[in-house]
């Protein structure tokens, strides 16, 4: 009995150390990261998207280096705010990097779907803006096709589940991407411009794409 008591006494500090360097350490990082994310959400809801991006990226930096799920979610948040701030092409690039194949444990399927949905939205708003700025399909067709393809894939995978809310969301966005590709420029110009596309127009998305293509 004394032997087991001594063993238990010896294991107690080890348990504390393990907690500190695993679960406890991650909780400590989460305590630093979560408040910053909340600030990002508050800024995003207020329409201060630039500040939201800063808070989300700060939250990612404060997250545990091995907490891939939290860090990925924060990067998605930052990309979404970047898109809403008028930089859909840059947001799409950020999501593309997240979705690159990686070693180790794969990301949860729900998180991958969220990332792909954000990517599709960024491509849609980029295509919408590029269509308003240029009539040449060479300028907007790849983004429009990309948004359509992703929304179609997400919709087809979602209708096999019972998540009707998401399937309706994807179906509506799929229809919107089809209408965007088929609409005449004059017809598109007569419609109310979505907030994200309006912000992108102010930032000159077409000129950015031309500059990137010439590099």
Could you explain the architecture of this structure?
By secondary structure, the protein is mainly α. The chain folds into 2 domains: 13-85; 103-215. Helix content is 81%, strand content 0%. Helix 3 (49-62) runs antiparallel to helix 4, helix 4 (68-84) packs antiparallel against helix 5 and helix 5 runs antiparallel to helix 6. The radius of gyration is 22 Å and the shape is globular. The chain starts with a helix and ends with a helix.
Keywords:
single chain; 215 residues; mainly alpha; 2 domains; 81% helix; globular; disordered N terminus
Write down the overall mean pLDDT.
83
Q: How is the quaternary structure best described?
A: single chain
Profile the largest sheet. Answer: none
| Shape designation | globular
Tell me the radius of gyration.
Answer: 22 Å
Helix amount, in percent? over 70%
Question: So how many helices?
Answer: 11
The succession of helices and strands, N to C, reads HHHHHHHHHHH
How many domains would you count in the coordinates? 2
């Amino acid at each position: 009995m004394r032997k087991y008591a001594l063993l238990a006494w010896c294991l107690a500090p080890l348990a504390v150390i393990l907690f500190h360097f695993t679960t406890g350490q991650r909780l400590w990082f989460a305590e630093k990261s979560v408040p910053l994310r909340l600030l990002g959400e508050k800024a995003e809801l207020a329409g201060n998207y630039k500040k939201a991006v800063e808070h989300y990226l700060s939250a990612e930096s404060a997250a545990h280096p091995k907490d891939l799920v939290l860090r990925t979610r924060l990067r998605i948040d930052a990309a979404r705010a970047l898109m809403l701030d008028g930089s859909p092409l840059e947001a799409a690039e950020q999501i593309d990097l997240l979705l690159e194949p990686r070693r180790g444990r794969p990301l949860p399927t729900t998180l991958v779907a969220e990332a792909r949905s954000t990517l599709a939205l960024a491509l849609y708003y980029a295509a919408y803006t590029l269509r308003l700025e240029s009539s040449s399909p060479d300028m907007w067709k790849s983004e429009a096709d990309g948004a359509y393809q992703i929304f179609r894939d997400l919709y087809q995978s979602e209708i096999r589940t019972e998540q009707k809310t998401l399937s309706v969301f994807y179906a509506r966005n799929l229809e919107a991407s089809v209408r965007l590709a088929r609409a005449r420029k004059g017809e598109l110009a007569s419609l109310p411009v979505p907030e994200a596309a309006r912000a992108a127009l102010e930032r000159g998305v077409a000129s950015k794409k031309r500059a990137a293509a010439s590099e």
